[in-house]
Amino acid sequence: MRDFTGRVCVVTGAGSGIGRALATELAAHDARLALADVDAEGLAETAARAVRLGAREVHTEVLDVADRAAVLAWADATAARFGGVDLVVNNAGVALTAGVEEMSWDDFEWLMGVNFWGVAYGTKAFLPHLRRSPDGHLVNISSVFGLFGVPSQSAYCAAKYAVRGFTESVRQEQRVSGSGVGVTTVHPGGIRTNIVRNSRAAAGHDKGRVVALHDSVSRTSAQRAARIILSGVRRGRSRVFVGADATAIDVGSRLLGSVFEPLVRVVSRRRQASTLVPAGPALSPDGVGSAPALSAEGYSGPVTGG
């Protein structure tokens, strides 16, 4: 897909972050937009910006991507409303900072519901419609944390590895079948969005310090990330790495071999130490921080990843 003019483009997690940036970039190319997010206020603001930038048509849906029936219904309604679908970006995501023994089952399942099942539901729901497009394209957002494991990110890494494997398999299926649908996996590094501010954290992790660390290592703006992703779609890339940090991690993980994992441990110890709660009262008695259960966000990834 080399031109987005007049194309029907679907973006989840469009209420802020990379999702909002994708919507505004596509609007500037005169695309027709179907946008979804669980955050109604953020979604409305994105839609207003898209209209001001010249989007040919904008429809919004307040949607929890972890709700399979809702996603399936939205996909069919979107295709019926627009007469088809050309581009789908499964971008909605959330974050959780907690070791595997610290995290609650509810938090673990909540993250997997949005970050993995939301992508799987969106893919299965929209793929039949994409196959009817002359050059349909599917984009699923993984992360650099889908390339290597990180302490306190076991749930997040599990979801992002799953998205990576799932999307690569879908891409192979489309090529073998000759469907013509392009499929791209995106691995963002540190992106300046609010995903960490809206995240959940286990007791012992100071939310303010986690946010400060994320902000200090996130070098790429959401708008820049959106442009890189859409450039990858135009070029038919199977993988897109967003940010110099993402590229460095991809190359380093492959070239350094057995040295890479100990290096990750050293860096992680230093960064994790900087996010711990200072000596004093614990957070909540149930082991979960007080962060709200948040909106879908564009990707930056908790602490260091996308």
Automatic annotation (TrEMBL):
Among PROSITE patterns, the record links this protein to: ADH_SHORT
Q: Which GO terms describe its molecular function?
A: oxidoreductase activity
Q: Which family does it belong to?
A: Belongs to the short-chain dehydrogenases/reductases (SDR) family.
| The keyword Cell cycle is annotated on this UniProt entry | no
Q: Where is this region: Disordered?
A: 277-306
Q: Which InterPro entries match?
A: KR_dom (IPR057326), NAD(P)-bd_dom_sf (IPR036291), Sc_DH/Rdtase_CS (IPR020904), SDR_fam (IPR002347)
**Family annotation (PANTHER family):** OXIDOREDUCTASE SADH-RELATED, RETINOL DEHYDROGENASE-RELATED
Which residue ranges does the record assign to the Ketoreductase domain?
A: 7-194
Q: What is the organism field in this record? A: Embleya scabrispora
Q: Which UniProt keywords apply?
A: Oxidoreductase
User: Which named protein is this?
Assistant: Acetoin dehydrogenase
Q: Which Gene3D superfamilies match?
A: NAD(P)-binding Rossmann-like Domain
